[in-house]
Amino acid sequence: MKKFVIFAIAALAACSCGTLASSGSSSSSRSYSSSASGAPGIRVSKSGNTEYVTITNLPTSASDLSGADITDPYVTAALTVAALMQYESNNAACMEMLEYLNGPNSISQYETQFLRDRLNGKFYKVRSFFAGATPANNYTPTKPYKVTVSSNPYSFQTGGYATLYLTSGGADNPRPIKLRKKESTGEWFYNEITFLADIRKPASEDPWR
């Protein structure tokens, strides 16, 4: 079973991630597509410590992720959310993608149960991390799908680890995701899914609406 460890994070190691954790106001953008057939086209725009990851088509299998630039931890964070979008309709495919995005680790029974507990009857939590999804529209994302991922001065303090933050339309503050870097390849993989705490209910489930 993979042990879950909470790491304290700060800006010193940000330099190892290049401009990703820069506190400046520079902006940039890039785009690419996976080599796999039907894979998601991904476009990334950056402003300061925030990256906006646009995914034209949601991935439906691990092969769809093969061309994604996961040397960028912000992209890995966004693709973790994208993979979870298959949780209800094709759980096996979802878990296959999470295994890919989990890197050398294997998903434990604890993690499987954790996802079940957090998402049972509350799958709208996943949709909430896409732009345009709010309680008022029952967390219906706009298309193409866009995930906002940010860092703070402490995000890269511990070498080889990072904590980034995902914006949810149902929460007042961005939610954390923990990642770990594979030093031999420079790739980032999610280390712990920590962003599925409860959010505001969608309008259709709010008894006060």
Outline: globular
Oligomeric description of these chains? single chain
Largest sheet, spatial ordering of strands? 1-2-3-4-5-6-7
The residue ranges in which pLDDT falls below 50 over 5 or more consecutive positions are 1-25, 33-38
Proportion of residues in β-strands: 15-25%
Number of domains: 1
Q: How many beta-strand runs?
A: 7
Topology:
Layout: E1 27-33, E2 41-47, E3 50-55, H1 73-84, H2 91-101, H3 109-119, H4 124-127, E4 145-150, E5 161-166, E6 175-182, E7 187-193
Antiparallel strand pairs: 1-2, 2-3, 3-4, 4-5, 5-6, 6-7
Helix pairs in contact: 1-2
Please characterize this protein's 3D structure.
The chain has 209 residues and is an alpha+beta fold. It has one domain (11-24, 32-197). Helices cover 18% and strands 22% of the residues. It has 4 helices and 7 strands, in the order βββααααββββ. Strands 1-2-3-4-5-6-7 form a 7-stranded antiparallel sheet, covered by helices on one side. The longest helix is centred in the middle third of the chain and has 12 residues, at 73-84. The model is unreliable at 1-25 and 33-38 (pLDDT under 50).
Summarize the structure.
The protein contains 4 helices and 7 strands, in the order E-E-E-H-H-H-H-E-E-E-E. It is α+β, with helices and mostly antiparallel strands and 209 residues long.
